[in-house]
Amino acid sequence: MATAMVVAMGMGMVLAQTRTSAGQIQSVDPVAASGPVVVAPPKKVDVRRPKAAVKKKISSSLPKSRVNPQLKPTPKPAVQAKIQRRPKSRRSAPVPPPVIPKKVDAARMEECATGIQTAMQPARLLRLSEECERDFPASPLGEQSRRIAAGARQALDIQRSIGLSGDFFEDSVGDAAYRDNLINAVRGDKEAAYRIATAYRSGESGVAASPRRTEQWLQFAAELGNGKAAWELAEIYNYGGLVADAARFEKKAIDLGYQPPVRLPTRGY
Asked: Do the beta carbons of residue 108 and residue 135 sit within 8 Å?
């Protein structure tokens, strides 16, 4: 056994000398020299991710496209140039033919004017004035007829409200001044109606004195808006003992703006 150890040591020395002679200075572990030790080289670790996993992650991060990947997008067609169209000419509205005024019937116009001037009853005057206004609306006679119709309508309403007949306005008495006042009163003139009342009270202008006519014309004038006529009518009713009627027309006179004289102490109300 000692002989074997000597042999082994001798072989180790021989190997050491051989490496030294080759220019490699390296210490040799005597234990390692007893037998060759084989060390496996370290394995290389592939740090790259699997291709399948990378592709899956990329594809999951991008939104899914609805376009079939096999179909190539078709190029957009070229924009066609807009054709400049000339605007359509608007046809002008046809010019209406000139209005040719109707031929004025002179005879009819004269008939209207005469009828309006001579009518004495409010109802007849209203009817004639409305006919003349209808037949000659754009003429001076038509404008005059409108004004007369308004006054005649008011006179007719008063005639009916106080109970006067149509013959009341057709007295054939009186002078020219009385007739003029009568014509104007029928057309709604409150001052003309008051003058007729005073004529009947004093027996002037070709008429005989008549207390009854005086009262009627004072009432007609008061309803047309004459404050003085309303006050004088209240005096008549007061002296006759008609206290309620007297008070009503006194109030009407004041409402119409009439300023009465100082009240006498002999009044019965």
From this structure: yes
pTM score of the predicted model = 0.59
Residue 218 covered by a domain: no
Rounded to whole angstroms, how far apart are CA atoms 259 and 228?
Answer: 9
What domain range includes position 144?
A: 105-166
Rounded mean pLDDT of 139-157? 92
Rounded to whole angstroms, how far apart are CA atoms 207 and 53? 135
Q: Does residue 199 sit within a domain?
A: no
Amino acid at 39: V
Is residue 243 within 8 A of residue 269, CB to CB? The reply is: yes
Decide if 141 is inside a domain: yes
**How many structural domains comprise the chain?**
1
Contact 151, 183 (CB under 8 A): no
Sign of CA dihedral 154, 160, 161, 164: positive
